[in-house]
Amino acid sequence: MTTHAGETRSRIMQAGIHIALAAGAVFMLLPFWLMLRTSFTAPDQIFSGNVLTLTHFSLDNYARVFAEVPLLRYYLNGFVVVGTIFLGQVVICVPAAYALSRLRFAGRELGLWIVLAAMMVPYHATAIPIYVLLSQFGLINTHGALILPFIGSAFSVFLLRQFFLSIPQSVFESARLDGASPYRILIHIVFPMARPAIITFGILSFVSHWNDYFWPSFVLRNDFAATVPFGIVRFLDQELGADYGPQMAAATLTVLPLLIGFLIAQRQLIAGIAMSSGQVD
Questions:
Q1: 161-175 pLDDT, tens per residue?
Q2: Exposure string (b/e) for 188-197, b if CB count within 10 Å is 16 or more?
Q3: Residue 276 and residue 164 in contact, taking contact as beta carbons nearer than 8 Å
Q4: Cα-Cα-Cα-Cα dihedral of 140, 146, 235, 31, to 10°?
Q5: How far apart are the first and last CA of the chain?
Q6: Which of 218, 235, 236, 216 is nearest to 227 (CA)?
Q7: For residue 57, what are the β-bridge partners?
Q8: So where are the chain's domains?
Q9: Is 181 helix (H, G, I), strand (E, B) or coil?
Q10: CATH class held by domain 64-276
Q11: Out of 14, 28, 144, 192, which could bridge 139 as a Cys pair, Cβ 3.0 to 4.6 Å?
């Protein structure tokens, strides 16, 4: 009887946990469904009927967005910015993380503390000094103003360092015994083995900078280098007002690349996060 009662309590607890998780999932996904539902509903039908169901499917909102917004230019600018930032972070952050994790040199611990301290400072706090510096170099309202402040990432250095610490030390010692230089170890061993971690911080970097509105609104004055969030917000403010259908269509088109990217790389993302929390050797 005791065993049966224990199994019953366990099943009740499991059912309660699943119900709570399902309720949380519905609560988190409901805004996305409302966004999609509004974007595919004709403007005069948005507030009619049940707001949880899609009764009048229409692409009018998307047609208006593509007709009135230079969306392809915003997409191109966005991909150029986030792609260049990612490449710059790979070139800078991977060697820095490798040095802080596996090389022995004076000042290594100080360098690690500087990285940790940099992670605690929000980039909003340094926005004005960086703006002044970019202005002195004539980079305001250019792609360079969106890229240069972010090609060095303290978080990426720390994430990659944790991953490199999970690689057995014997791998690096064997390479040194074979006569490999630090540069050769970095190129032929570290980069291939770090692929999951690089993909992980690449996805995080892509999401962060693709969605960023604060910095573009700080350094851009027109649509020449506008990314998707900045360009669409300008469009919403100037053209749409409270026209919710095109607003939600524009919002859907903003998050679409993020969703596609996550679905493609979700296995590598999970693997990279798991490996970055592995054993420290």
A1: 888 888 788 887 888
A2: ebbeebbebb
A3: no
A4: -150
A5: 49
A6: 216
A7: 41
A8: 2-58, 64-276
A9: coil
A10: mainly alpha
A11: 144
Enter the tokens of residue 182: 């630090």
Checking if the pLDDT of 235 tops 70, the result is no
Return the minimum-mean-pLDDT range out of 26-40, 125-139, 161-175.
161-175
Residue type, 281: D
The Cα–Cα gap between 187 and 213 comes to 35
Handedness of CA 54, 207, 120, 213 (dihedral sign): negative
CA atoms of 267 and 30, how far apart (whole Å): 25
pLDDT value at position 5?
Answer: 64
Is pLDDT larger for residue 103 or for residue 90?
90
Q: Which two tokens stand for residue 117?
A: 């301290």
Tokens representing residue 34 in the block: 């409302």
What are phi and psi for residue 153, nearest 5 degrees?
-125, 115
DSSP one-letter string for 5-28: HHHHHHHHHHHHHHHHHHHHHHHH
- Would the pLDDT of 6 be above 70? no
DSSP for 242-280, please give it. T-HHHHHHHHHHHHHHHHHHHHHHHHHHHHHHHHHTS--
41 pairs with which residues across the strands?
57
| Residue partners of 214: CB distance under 8 A and separation at least 6 | 124, 127
Query: Token digits for 196?
Result: 């999951």
Q: How far apart are alpha carbons 54 and 103 in whole angstroms?
A: 59
Nearest to 161 by CA among 275, 265, 82: 275
CA distance linking residue 40 with residue 34, whole number of Å: 10
